Amino acid sequence: MLHENESDCIIECGMTSLNTEVQKFLAEYKRTHPVVYIIRHFDEIKSLLHLGDADARRLRIGDSKHRIYSDFEYFNLSDSGSLSENTAPGSFPSPHLLKEAKADFCNFLDILTCAQLHSPLKSMSFFDIASTPVENRLYSYALALTLSELTNDNFDTACFESGQDAIRLIIDLKEEHSLEVITRIIASIRRIAKNPIIYDVVGLEKALSSAAYFMETDYLPLLSHGIRNCVDYMMVDLDLPDTISKEVISQKRRTKVIGCFHDEMPGKHGWQNKTRYEKYQQARTLGCDMVQLTQNAMTRNDNDDLNAFVYSLHLAQETPLPLIAYNTGPLGRSSLISNKILTPVQYHASNSTIDSFNMTARQAMRGLFATFIFDSLKFYHFGASVSWSPFPPAMHKAAYNELGLEHSYQVFETTTLQNIKEITSSPHFGGASISLPFKASILPSIDIKSSHATAIGAINTLLPLRDSLESDKFSLEYQASQRNRAGPVIGWYGDNTDWLGIFECVHKNLSPRNTIRSSKTSALVIGAGGAARAAIYALIQMGCRKILIFNRTLQHAEEVAFHFNSWANIAEIPAVIHVIQSISDPWPVDIQPATIIISCIPAHSIDSQRPANFKAPEKWIQSKSGGVVADVSKS
Q: Which intervals hold domain Quinate/shikimate 5-dehydrogenase/glutamyl-tRNA reductase (predicted)?
C-alpha cells in the first residue's frame, strides 16, 4: 500500500505502526518520504480509548518507539490551545472547534512541504510584511522566552502581542527536558502567536567545548529535535567542531541555521579581534543561513567598535551573510537599537530573566524614532461618509502607543479626489484606508497595483511611493524598506485587503458539512460595490465556482459579473458569476442552494443616496445544511 501511494497523499498508519515489522519498514521508508509522529496528551488518549492502567502503560511504551521510526514530530493540541498541560481530557468538541486542529495540522504540513510559499493568500507585494522573511525586514525583533517560562501555568499569553517578529524559544541544558513537552510548546506557539520560531539551546560550558563534550551532553539530540519539529530557525554554536556542525547543518531540511558565537570576556576592543571575522567566515563556509556574533560590552566604546566592524563587513562582502550583531550587558543596550535583524527583546524589561535581553520591542522601536532613524507619519481614512468609521483614531493611537510607533491617524470625509491628492502629497503621508466612492474611481490614479487589487478592480489601501536616489523609484523592494520613513511622494501604490477579511470570516464559520466543493457549492453576493467585488474574489480564492450576484441597479451587477467572468477566463479559473436580475426571480434550478450569503450593502448614505433596505426572499435561503451569512456593510 505504501509503495502504491508514494506521492500526493497522506497515509495514516493507525495501530499497525506498533507492529515491529512495520516499524522496521518505516525506518527505511523515512529515507525518501516524510514520516510524522503525531503526539497527543496521553491522558486524553487513555480516556478516549477507555483504557485501564495496564493497557495504557503498554500503549505508551509502544507509542514512544515511534520517535525512532519517524523523521518529523507534531503535537495534536486539545481545543483550548493552552500552553499548560492542565486541560480536561476526554470531551468531544463541536465541529467548529475542531477547525483549529485542522488549521494547525494543515499549517504544519505546509511548513513541512514549503507549500505556504505558494499559497494564493500570499501577497505578491513587498509591502506584505507577513510574507517577507524576518531577516529581510528593515528591523525585526525576537521575543526571548525560556522553556520554563512557557511551561508555567501562570504564563501570560498576552506577551505574544508585544510587537515581535519571531519567538526565540530558549532551552537551557542545565534544566531537565521532556521532548514531548518541547513539541507541545512549539505547537502552542504556532497556534497562539503565529510567529516564526527560533530554537536556541543554551548552557554549554565553553571551557569544555570539545567533540567529546558535545557528544556527552543533550545539545546535539536537542538540536535534532528542533529539526524534527520543523522550527523556522535554529541556533548552532560555532564553537562546535566543524565536523559535527556540518553533520547537523546537513540535516536541517527547511530549517534555517543561525551560526552563533558569544564572547563573554572579550577584553579591550574585542570587535577588532580577528576572531570576529574568522567566525563570520566559518559560518559562511559551514553553510549557515545567518550568523550571530555577540560579546559582553566592557565599555561604551564597544558599541562604536561594533558599528565599525559591521560597516567593514558590508564593504568587504559582495553578498554578505545576514548578520545579527550586538553587545550584551548594561553598556551594550544602544547596540540593540542599531542591530537590524532579530534583535532579542523581553516582554517586560524590568522583569527580565535573561540579563542580555533587557529591552522590549516597544523600547527598541521608540529608540529608532528618538534617533530619527524612523519618522512620525500621518495616516488617514478617506471616504464620503466615514465619520462613523469602525477604525476610530483612538484605536489607532492606542495601537501606535503599545507598539512604540509615533504616528497619527485621522478620519477625513471628502467627496472629491482632489482633496485626497493634496493631503497625500505631504512627505509625512504614511498611508490610508479608502472607502466609497473612491475604491474603484481612484484606480486610474494608481501607479502600481497589487495582483489582488488588479483582479478585484478596486482598492481599500493606499500607500505612498517615495522618491529615491538609491534605487529604481518604483522598486517595491526599496519602497517597502521605507516603511516608517518620510520623504517626497512621487506616486501611489494600491492594494485590496477587504477580501482577506471576508475570506477569514467565512472560512472560520463554515461548518465541515458545508466545506466548499467546486462542483457543488454556491454562494450569493448582495451588492455591486467595492466590498462585493472583494467578496466575489474571496469566494473564488476559497474554491467556490458558482457565485450569484444581486444588486438593485442591474447594470452595476452585470458590470461586476462581466469583470470577474473575464478575469476568471484569462486566469483559467472555471468560475462563473451569474446575475439575478430581479428579486422576484426564482433560484436557478441547476444550482444548489447557497451555503454562503454575503451582504455588501452600505449601511450609511453615500452622496445623499438613501441606504438600501433589502430583505432577501426566503426562496433564496433554502440550504438544508445551513451555512454562513456575513454582513460586511460599510461605506
A: 518-575
Cβ–Cβ < 8 Å for 288, 250: no
User: Can you read off the three cell numbers belonging to residue 315?
Assistant: 564593504
CB 327 within 8 A of CB 276: no
Cα 158 from chain centroid (whole Å): 17
Residue 581 CB neighbours (<10 A): 12
Mean pLDDT over 83-112 rounds to: 71
- The predicted pLDDT at position 92 comes to 47
The CB density around residue 536, as the number of other CB atoms within 10 Å, is: 30
Q: How many helices (H) and strands (E) does the chain have?
A: 21, 21
pLDDT digits 0-9 by tens, 282-311? 999 999 999 999 999 999 999 999 999 999
Q: Can you say whether the dihedral through the CA atoms of 583, 587, 588, 592 is positive or negative?
A: positive
Domains of the chain: 3-118 (no CATH), 133-370 (3.20.20.70), 378-496 (3.40.50.10860), 507-631 (3.40.50)
Res 176 pLDDT > 50:
yes
C-alpha 520, offset from chain centre: 31
At residue 401's C-alpha, the angle toward residues 356 and 156, to 5°, is 55
What cell does 48 get? Answer: 478516549
Side-chain half-sphere CA neighbours of 583 within 13 A? 11
- Residues composing the chain: 635
Question: Which grid cell is 153?
Answer: 501555568
DSSP code string of 566-601: HHHHHTT---EEEE---TTPPPPTTSPPPSEEEE--
Q: Return the pLDDT at 132.
A: 82
Q: How far is CA 314 from the centre of its chain?
A: 29
Q: What is the DSSP string of 120-155?
A: TTS-SSTT-GGGS-GGGSSS-EEEEEEHHHHTSTT-
Tens digit of pLDDT for each residue in 194-234?
899 999 999 877 655 566 666 677 889 999 999 999 999 99
Confidence band, pLDDT 50/70/90 cuts, at residue 391 = low
Minimum mean pLDDT among 27-41, 294-308, 346-360, 371-385: which range? 346-360
By CB neighbour count within 10 A (0-12 exposed, 13-18 middle, 19+ buried), where does 128 fall? middle
Query: Above 60 in pLDDT, residue 163?
Result: yes
* Among candidate residues 561, 619, 617, the one with its CA nearest the CA of residue 588: 619
Burial of 422 (0-12, 13-18, 19+ CB in 10 A): exposed
- Enclosing H/E stretch for 550: strand 546-550
Check pLDDT > 90 for residue 118: no
3-state secondary structure of 39: strand
Question: pLDDT tens-digit profile of 547-590?
Answer: 999 999 999 999 999 999 999 998 888 888 999 999 999 999 99
pTM above 0.85, yes or no: yes
Cα gap 351→370, rounded to integer Å? 24
Alpha-carbon distance of 55 to 57, in angstroms, equals 5
3-class secondary-structure state, position 611: coil
User: Which residues does 601 contact at the CB level (< 8 Å), separation at least 6?
Assistant: 526, 527, 611, 612, 614, 633
Q: What stretch of H or E contains 425?
A: none
Cβ atoms < 10 Å from Cβ of 260:
22
Q: How big is the chain by its Cα radius of gyration, in Å?
A: 28
Q: What is the DSSP string of 16-38?
A: GGGSHHHHHHHHHHTTTS--EEE
How far apart, in whole angstroms, are the C-alpha atoms of residue 23 and residue 1?
15
